[in-house]
Amino acid sequence: MTININHNDMKLFLMRSILFFTICFSTAPLIGQIQIDSLQGLLNKKEYAKMIVLANNLTVEDSASYDVMYAIGQAYDGMLRYKIAYGYYDICYRMDTTNIEILNVLARSANNLGRVEDAEKFYLKVLEVDSSSFYTNNQLASFYYQSGKYDKALSIYQRLLSTDEENPALLTALGNCYIKMGDPLLAISNYFRAFNYTPENVALASTLINTMLSVGDRHSETALKICDTALVYNPNNLRLLQDKGMALYVNERYSDADTLYTSLMEAGDSTYITIQYCGLSRYQAGQFVASIEPLELAYLMDTTSINACLYLGSALGQTYDRKRAFLLFDKAEKLMKPSNAHIIMLGSFRADTHSRNREEKISSQIYYGLWKEYPGRMDLLSRVYASNNGYPFSYKQPEEQQIALFVQITFTKALLDMQRNDLQQEDNPQWENRIRFLYSMREVFEKIYDEMIFNEANSLPMLAPDGEKSTITMAQLRTLIDRLPNERPTNNSARR
User: Fold this and answer.
1) Angle 22-28-34 (CA atoms, 0-180°, nearest 5)?
2) CA-CA to 162 of 20 to 30 Å: which in 35, 120, 451, 481?
3) Range scoring the smallest mean pLDDT among 11-25, 132-146, 158-172, 295-309
4) Domain segments of the chain: what residues?
5) Which tens digit of pLDDT belongs to each residue from 442-461?
């Protein structure tokens, strides 16, 4: 393992680390011991900057000392210089590859540096030596959780909990894993057990309360009881008081929620959620006039909030300013509408997913519907064409033939209209490719026209992807063919 460290303080260290393999470990002089004692004293006082200064006076013998290298690594670690610290720890590891302490430190340092593969490797090396190590198992579980490998983290936490069933930290960690894995009910079960052991833990209580409120009415009353229990230990905690306000609101105790939120505002709580729910509590309690002031404040804090527009508008509409109420309703309606770009993106993602699932008919329906809504987006119609670009009469089912014929004619007409509306040919780099495609479509339609003559068919049925039926007559097809290029273009002919 080679560590590249660009730092002046490390130049001497690297030179000495090479000399390490040529010196004798049994010849550590007295100055080395003095160095270790000095470093250890500073380390105990956490005077890391002084340790780094002292490290500039290291001797060659010092660089061969595990204790000195480890102490300096800790100094750089304490100064958050993880890359340099990692280099010193790596030298210690070279001295003793089975030392559990340095393996754990290297794993943690590698994780700090984002070297996740190395971190996992070192943690697993420790567990090869001592599979029951609580510290290493917990660190590895935390590492897996941070890496998004929640199932692996969960497995380790469950194993640790089996030997310490009343450990609130492990129960909380299990709950966190279940949240990430999309199972809030199991998370609540573990959070609740942890809370019973540590009801004074504000962060845990708040997490449990909000998780319960998020799953609906089933746990809302219990969440309120937990608020009261937690507040016994932390009676003035703002976070818990805000959580209780929300629990009261969810339990439809609007007057009580209003009283609590009002007291929080009077005590100086100017957070958006407190102001907003103070207004909402008053509104739901039927105090429309009183709700206007906090709802107005909430609206000024976030004029893009749909709820702020709706509830403030309704409160004004039920009291004294119906004109402004209508303006707020109009704004809320506009905010509810997604942008055209997002509508197209969502539809395209749906259509593409159906296509990958070999459901081309559904995919074509979606793309065609989007194109009808946004006819300027030829890329959408081209996706419909791509799913129906075979010779129409080569399809086995009549419905497939009719859809292919409709799509190809519609796509060709749209391209012709685009061609006519484009500016000078020289300004459009796609012009020649379009001419080539239109010529190829002339060949297709000429073949269909000949078949109509042979079969004495005056018209052909067509079917749009959305199910709308239509026909094309021989005369209409001939008119379309005559609009298409009648010569295969060369490289330059399309631009003449």
Assistant:
1) 135
2) 120
3) 11-25
4) 1-95, 272-337, 338-387, 404-496
5) 999 999 999 999 999 999 99
